[in-house]
Design brief:
Blueprint: H1 6-20, E1 31-36, H2 39-49, E2 54-60, H3 66-84, H4 94-143, H5 147-157, H6 166-173, H7 181-193, H8 198-212, H9 228-238, E3 243-248, H10 256-265, E4 270-274, H11 281-284, H12 286-300
Helix pairs in contact: 1-2, 2-9, 4-7, 4-8
């Protein structure tokens, strides 16, 4: 249920579909990933796994907060620099040795603090699983039977409530017909807070702390650890992946400003804004959305020469 696993799931599905409908080996497969809201993070995770096979990215009202991501990335970079500072030449002055010792102690303290914090969250999540989750699952089952519950929730996503038809509400209700959907939803929420169980979190944390005592560490950037914005910059700036951002200017769930900030940080990005549209432009203005998608696709995908 971890969001970081979403890339594996998406690309695994693509591989499965490729096996069922194989294409000519002379034609390299290129994938156009489209993600909406939090699904934009899943699309980015999938694309960053196979950057050379990405035709383009379309992010619709992406749940990405550039300013928050930049602060998080800055902390990650400081942590990496702190780790790398422990290595180096032995021919150093007493002053630099003292600075390295201070840096070493500080890095160990920060690592221990992160481990304790994650362990505490994991313990709370385990308690949630045992004592609270059954009650919440029961409550969810009762709520989804109430049509006004869906209308209240979906009205936040739609700018024009007249477009929220009975057929649309029913389509949102359909997934709850799947057995154990409620447990899946709660497990997903739990994974966002604490991906692992308490014992595994502690064991992994001790392993990380042990690494912090080594003089040398692997300094290769782990893109799974990077923020969504940093992954997006890598794809667009280093791998030249075309990016289109689509956002309704009346979105009350994910502000339009987020997409504007992403576009400012990635100059090659194309920002498409829809007037009088909320969080779900593919539902509120489907014809306009498809036109934008087709135009973008025709710009980035070269037609196959059948001669």
């Amino acid at each position: 249920y971890k969001l970081s696993n979403s890339g594996d799931i998406i690309n695994g599905l693509l591989d499965h579909l490729d096996q069922r409908t194989p294409i000519s080996p002379q034609i390299p497969r290129k994938t156009l990933y489209v993600g909406h809201s939090m699904g934009a993070l899943a699309a980015i995770n999938a694309a960053v796994q196979r950057p050379d096979q990405v035709a383009g990215l379309v992010l619709v009202a992406p749940a990405i907060t550039p300013l928050k991501d930049e602060k998080t990335q800055e902390r990650l970079q400081k942590r990496r620099l702190s780790s790398s500072s422990k290595g180096g030449s032995s021919a150093t002055t007493s002053s630099s040795m003292a600075k390295r010792r201070v840096s070493f102690v500080w890095n160990v303290m920060m690592t221990a603090n992160r481990v304790y914090f994650k362990a505490a969250l994991a313990l709370l999540a385990d308690v949630f699983d045992i004592f609270i989750k059954p009650f919440l699952a029961f409550t969810l089952r009762r709520l989804v039977r109430d049509r006004p519950f869906w209308i209240r929730g979906l009205s936040m996503a739609y700018h024009d409530p007249e477009k929220l038809t009975n057929a649309t509400v029913f389509q949102y209700q359909r997934p709850v017909l799947v057995r154990d959907w409620d447990l899946g939803l709660l497990n997903f929420v739990r994974a966002r807070v604490a991906p692992e169980r308490f014992v595994k979190t502690v064991v992994d944390g001790l392993r990380v702390m042990g690494k912090s005592f080594k003089r040398e560490q692997d300094q290769q950037i782990d893109r799974d650890e990077n923020t969504a914005l940093e992954k997006l910059k890598y794809l667009c700036n280093e791998k030249n992946v075309p990016l289109m951002l689509i956002h309704g200017n009346e979105d009350r769930l994910v502000p339009m400003e987020n997409s504007k900030q992403i576009a400012e940080r990635i100059p090659t990005a194309k920002l498409v804004q829809y007037e009088n549209c909320g969080h779900v432009p593919h539902e509120e203005v489907p014809a306009q959305f498809l036109d934008s998608l087709e135009a973008f696709k025709s710009d980035i995908i070269t037609p196959i020469d059948n001669k």
